[in-house]
Amino acid sequence: MTPFEYRLLAGDPSTKYGEIKKFPDVPGGDWNLHEGLPLAPNFQPSVTWSIAPNSGNLIGDFVKNLGDMLILSRRARDLFEAEGIYPPVIEYLPFILKNKKGRVVDSAEYCLANPLRKVMCLDRSRSNFVATPDGDVAAVNALEVDVAQIPNDLKVFRLGEYPRITILRSDLIERCKTAELKGLYTLNMGDDL
Description:
mainly beta; single chain; 9% helix; 13 strands; 2 helices
């Protein structure tokens, strides 16, 4: 039995943080951002994403975004790398971030952290989800995982049955809190999504 708990990455409901609400065209289209497919060969550092004008003023180390994707400051990326989170488990894709006034945020480098590892660990008996006629997962309303299926060395990964969901291990979350990284918001297993 693993000594760790797992939580789901989610958008912070607080209005104090600026949020990316629109993603411009990226290679392969928006959909690939949520699938855990490699994007590095075509993702250019000139990709520019902007904080929405009608969102909060603060930009966290974990940038709030409409897609609940892992968007990290340099500080957050450094912590992930210090925790041994490297390719091929994840890819770090630098991009240009503009604040809500349209100015480039140059005080920190930002990247899309794209978890590539997917783990089939949905606990079908305890989760609330919608299945397609052929049994695939179409949506998840409340998630429980079978921790026995999760490799002990994984600190961040995507739910194999529904890769839109990114899962973080509890010790990584605690290290982010200890480092006083701002903007990380997660949900407990079983919470409504």
